[in-house]
Amino acid sequence: MVRPPQLTRDLRAALSSGELWIAFQPQYDLDPTGPADAEVAANPVAVEALCRWNHALLGAVRPDTFIPLAEEGRFLDEIDLHVFARATEQVTRWRESGHPLGLSVNASPAHFSTRYADTIVARLDRLGIDPAGMTVEITEAPTPQLRPEMITAMQALRAVGIAISVDDYAGGDATVAMLEGLPIDEVKIDRSLTQRDDAEAHDAVAAVVESSARHGWRVVAEGIETVADLRRSRERGCGLGQGYLWGLPMPSEEIDALLAAV
C-alpha cells in the first residue's frame, strides 16, 4: 500500500510524467420542448474538463483521493492550470474542426485569486482563444467565494468574457441570497437535488431557477443518471444538464467519435 506522503510525491511527479490526463464530460441543452425521454437526442454544447490520474502501480486513483493531497501539498493550483492548458488546446482543435463547444474548468477556492485570473487570461491571449464559451467553476461548499480577493478575480475574468459558475449548489452552505450578491453567470445544481423527487428539492431548485430569470444565470443540472432525472430537470427549468445518463467522463478520442456522429 502506498502511504499518503509517497502518494503526494507521486502526484507531484505525475504533473510532468503524463500520468495525469483529462476526461471530458459533455453538457447538453435541456430543451423543455423536446421529448421528455430523449436522453441522447441532443448534441453536446459544452464539455467539462476533469482531471484523472493513472498511477504507475495503483492504476486509476480517484479524484476524491488525490485532489485533497494536492490541496494539502499546496500545488492544486498547478493541477488546475495543467488541466486548463490541456483542455483549452483540445477544445480549440474541436472548434477549428467545426464543433463550437463551450469549456468548463474547475478552480479550487484555495487558490482562486487575481493571480490565477491573470494566468488564465494570459493563457487565452497566448493561444488566441476567444474567452466566450469559457467557464470557470468554483465549488460552493462552504462559502469561500465571499472572500474579497475572490470577488475581484471573478470580476476580472468576467470583464474579458469568461463566465463564472458556482459548482455543486446544495452541497454546502450557500443560499440563493448569497448567490445574488456574487458576480456569477451560472449555477450548477448538485446531484443531491437533481436526483431527488420531493417537495424540498423541487423548492430549492425552483428558487435558483427563479433567481436565474432575474439575473441571467444559466442553471445546469448535474448528476443526471436516469430518464426520470432528465425529465425532472427539464420540468424544473434547468437549461443544461450533464451526467452518467449520457456516459461517464471520457477521453478526447471518445468525444471525437461523439462529434463525428453529429
SSE arrangement:
Blueprint: H1 4-17, E1 20-29, E2 44-55, E3 59-61, H2 63-72, H3 76-96, E4 102-107, H4 114-127, E5 134-139, H5 148-159, E6 163-169, H6 176-179, E7 186-189, H7 191-194, H8 199-215, E8 218-221, H9 227-236, E9 240-241, H10 252-260
Parallel strand pairs: 2-4, 4-5, 5-6, 6-7, 7-8, 8-9
Antiparallel strand pairs: 1-2, 1-9, 2-3
Helix pairs in contact: 3-4, 4-5
- Uncertain ranges: none
Give the helix/strand class: alpha/beta
* Secondary structure: number of strands: 9
What's the N-to-C terminus distance? Answer: 45 Å
Helix proportion: 40-55%
Principal-axes geometry comes out as globular
Largest sheet: 8 strands, mixed, barrel
Characterize the quaternary organization of these chains: single chain
Helix-strand pattern, N to C?
HEEEHHEHEHEHEHHEHEH
Order of adjacent strands in the largest pleated sheet: 1-2-4-5-6-7-8-9
Rg calc: 18 Å
Number of continuous helical runs = 10
Task: Give the overall average pLDDT.
Answer: 89
Task: Note the beta-strand portion.
Answer: 15-25%
Describe the structure using short key phrases.
21% strand; 262 residues; alpha/beta; single chain
Question: What would you say about this model in short?
Answer:
The chain is of the alpha/beta class and 262 residues long.
Task: Provide a descriptive summary of the structure in words.
With 262 residues, the protein is an alpha/beta fold. The chain has ten helices and nine strands. The protein has an eight-stranded mixed barrel with strand order 1-2-4-5-6-7-8-9, surrounded by five helices. Helix 5 links the parallel strand 5 (134-139) and strand 6 (163-169). The longest helix has 21 residues, at 76-96. The protein is globular and about 45 Å long.
